[in-house]
Amino acid sequence: MKANTIPKRKVEISASIMCIDWLHAAKQLKILEEQSIDYLHWDVIDGRFAPDFTMGSSIINKFRASSSRPSDYHLMVEEPSQLFDNFSITPGDIFSVHQECCRNLHRDLVSLRKKGARVGVALNPGTSLEVLDYVIEDIDVILVMSVNPGFMGQELVPQTLGKIEKLRRRIDDMHLDIKISVDGNVNYQNIPNMVEAGADILVGGSSGLFRNDMDLEDSIKYLRESISEGEEKR
Fold first, then answer.
1. Which entry of 43, 46, 93, 140 is annotated as an active-site residue?
2. Residue 159 belongs to a domain with what CATH number?
3. Catalytic annotation on 43?
4. What pLDDT is stored for residue 50 in this prediction?
5. Number of domains in the chain
């Protein structure tokens, strides 16, 4: 898969903290810091939009106090604006809400911008890119879900690679400064294709970053090697 000519951009890593080894969370958080991982990714799930529950704001804010890494919030909740005031947003943080969850998406993006966040819109695998037509110029990040939200360890929905490629062309054709983030089955086999298609941020979870079969330092090394492989194909 070859996307249109893509400018050289650094591909960033966002560590999905829902997949951390909770019995050794302090140690792994320190490693993420030492390895200069770009973001800490916070999945907030309400059990309605997606069939699971994850961390609340009190846990997230406690983790944040122990790290200098920027935050990458991903709210998988109905009417996420009800929770905006619960989080300590600081400059450089990304805050993504699902298009499928917002009755007034534009209003929610404006509200997040006023709070100082870099604003993002998340799209499920089956959601068309056309829903972004009238808000795309107000977005900093578009989060493409490559699995259906809710549980870690799912298989990649293969059509999302073409979706990333199409979105990359659209962003470049419009000369917009928007990053494409990809979340779901971000493993060493899929990463090169995701990066080649145009991904800028990769959310590392149980299949690529917090793996049971290797130390965190090693998984970071292999993840970065997979990114480099994809960058060479651009």
1. 43
2. 3.20.20.70
3. yes
4. 75
5. 1
